[in-house]
Design brief:
Layout: H1 19-27, E1 49-54, E2 58-59, H2 73-83, E3 90-93, E4 101-105, H3 108-121, E5 128-133, H4 139-153, H5 158-176, H6 182-191, H7 198-210, H8 215-219, H9 224-240, H10 248-258, H11 266-281, H12 285-302, E6 305-309, H13 320-326, H14 328-335, E7 338-343, E8 376-381, H15 386-402, E9 410-412, E10 419-421, H16 431-444, H17 460-466, H18 473-479, H19 488-493, H20 501-520, H21 523-527, H22 529-533
Parallel strand pairs: 2-4, 3-5
Antiparallel strand pairs: 1-5, 3-4, 6-7, 7-8, 9-10
Length: about 525
Amino acid sequence: MDNTNKDIKRPKAHKRPDAAAIKGLLFEGNFGQSNADDALPVSDPISITQMVLKLSEIKAYDKNPRQLINPEYSSIKASIRNQRSLNNPFNVTRRPGAEHYMVQSGGNTRLAILRELYAETGDEAFNTVHCLFVPWTNESAVITAHLVENEMRGEMALIDKAYGIQALRSQLEQEQGSALSDKAFIKIVIELGYKLSIRQASRLNYALELDQIIPQALREGVTHRQLDTIKNTEKAYLRYCEGKTEQMPELFARNMTEHDSDAFDFERVRNAIEHELGELIDVPSNRLSLQIDVLMVEDSKKQNKTELLIESIEEYPDSRESIRGQNEENHDAEQHNVRLVLVDEPEQQQTQTPNKPHSSPKQSSSVKAVEPPKRVIEETPIKLDLLSLHQQGFTLAAEIAQSVNMTHLILPRSGGMGFVVEKPDIHPQNLTEWGIWWMLVGLSEQNAEQGHVALWAGTELYQLYASDADGGENVRNFLSDPPNMQLFPFQVLNDAEILKDCVFNEVVKLMENCRTLRKQFTSDMLWSESTIMSA
């Protein structure tokens, strides 16, 4: 018999610990690791989570696109002081390895105000911040979130937006390790959830150029329309001066700088430029002005191929109706988030009499606008980020619920509309609570179809519904009947005392977000078993 292995020592079988031993191990910190240096690191939540933080734990976003003071700063501060709290929680995130949380999308103004009020009063109510934690993804996503938030609120100066877009492009190129073409950059920005077109990007780049000569005017509120007028006029000046003088760039920049002020008037700049230029090339200024106007019209007719992303109506807010009337076909496409590529012959291009900030006799023109091009040769849908829409839906729902102290009843989900609604702690105490709660349940679509059940099956509200064996009696006893569509609009939606204006605006945004989800994604994508299981 071979005894070669008889002296090899076999490992002793470990004795299986009994229930008491297992319980003891579980109650030891980090499963028995007593060395503090070996403690497991505390990690941030992996989904959107409600948090209550102290001011010392939060810092403002150091790359915030908004640099100018919020024009509503004083009124926001007065509102927070009177209520001793925020109407709407803001979002926070945390960079990997960072000690402090930071503002993730909007909220820098509110954070600064809370710091001021806490320093002034010492009231701990201002030192306690209810917020929503959004897991960190990358720097470009945070910059985009701030741009989107400011765009939604309509409070961001054009020059701040220009520098914000510039910072976003720089960050994206850094993350991707290579330069981006204009097309590639705009495609990524749209996928991140921010509306940007080639025309808007060009306009914002021009604003950065003008910031070297009229910084004060830009910070006092130069509009998109005025910026376009300045750009088109400068191009016409340069074209007119070809072969006549090379001094136009210096002349234009100097006169712009000399007139830079908080009451900037480009018409006065034009008068000064044309007076000086007329003397320089020996042409009467009034004739020169007419020739510049003609060149501006001709320049608008030169394009024989135009590629554009349909922009939001914020393009020219003061011309909303005229834009719709002139190009109904493009407006319809905009409503469906469609990308159009338009091609036509030069004589079919839309022309436009130059727009100047202030009317004057030399602005009158007999040139009639040509019908805009209508032949669509390519149509592709704009891609929207499902995760961003879900996060935005939850955030908006939570902000609306905050108005009636029901934020804790809004639960984030990665399926459906991005959120579901939980049962109130007690019976709604007034019409406002009742109406807003039911409205959020309806917008969530959680109980709209049987296929949606899995997304809220674990809630107390579902248990309440499930306990009803006979006609929903338990639900009615606790929540009362759902709103009557005949009464709900005037009882809740139309009553500013019930639904404050700021909350109403959030309701509209949430409805738009839900509609976008419905339009851009199929029911299978929103309510599929795989989506619900990952929620």
